[in-house]
Amino acid sequence: MSKAAELRGQAREDLEKQLLELLKEQFNLRMQKGSGQLSRPSQFKVVRREIARIKTVLAEQSAAHSADGGH
Asked: Could you give the domains of the chain?
């Protein structure tokens, strides 16, 4: 099962909470990079892709909700 498929099975509130945590992590990584303390530069890519996955699933859910007539 892919990451996106796992995310689709979660509730919208959980996805929004995960998104907020990832955005905070991304901010912290940027601060570490700015101060020269970033130990794993590859982590940027991982966090950025996970944020994109969550945003995609949230957009799919919103589209399905609006196409469903909001019910």
From this structure: 3-67 (1.10.287.310)
Residue 1 confidence (pLDDT) above 60: no
Residues 42 and 48: their CA atoms lie apart, in Å, by 10
| pLDDT tens for each residue of 5-61 | 899 999 999 999 999 999 999 999 999 999 999 888 899 999 999 999 999 999 999
Contact between 7 and 51 under an 8 Å Cβ cutoff? The reply is no
The Cβ-side half-sphere exposure at 6, using a 13 Å CA radius, reads 6
